[in-house]
Amino acid sequence: MRINRDRLLERLTSLSDIGGIEGTAGSSRLAFSDADQAGRDLVRAWMDDLGLEVRIDAIGNVIGVRPGTEDLPPVMTGSHIDTVATGGRYDGNLGVLAGLEVIETLA
């Protein structure tokens, strides 16, 4: 069983394009900005496509859950998709999107 590298890179590119900084590979999705909301909406759409139970907490964290098939402790992964003013393409994003890729690979 292997992840789909191309699918993961495509998602990374799609997310980094939101708030993309012209002339660089960086992005700017400051917390609570329109770009941050657009990024969260995109990630939520991917979670919905994977059939995850999605909820958003009081400060906007998007949480997707794939229930297990056995009564075992949960496995968790994640990070952040907002950025500093000149964030890199992978900072935070990879931690979130790698988790989605694992879920899609398992499915």
Task: Please sum up the structure shown.
The chain has 107 residues and is mainly alpha-helical.
Description:
This protein has helices at 5-17, 34-49, 93-106; strands at residues 53-56, 62-65. With 107 residues, it is mostly helical. A hairpin with a 5-residue loop joins strand 1 (53-56) and strand 2 (62-65). A two-stranded antiparallel sheet has the order 1-2. The mean pLDDT is 94. The chain is globular, with a radius of gyration of 14 Å. The protein contains 3 helices and 2 strands. The protein has one domain (5-67, 74-106).
Mean pLDDT: 94
Beta strands, count: 2
Low-confidence stretches: none
β-strand amount: 5-15%
* Class of secondary structure makeup: mainly alpha
Radius of gyration: 14 Å
**CA-CA gap between termini:** 11 Å
Number of domains: 1
Largest sheet: 2 strands, antiparallel
Q: What is the helix/strand order?
A: HHEEH
Question: Which of globular, elongated, flat, extended, rod-shaped describes the shape?
Answer: globular
How are the elements arranged and paired?
Elements lengths: L4 H13 L16 H16 L3 E4 L5 E4 L27 H14 L1
Antiparallel strand pairs: 1-2
Features:
two-stranded antiparallel ribbon; mainly alpha
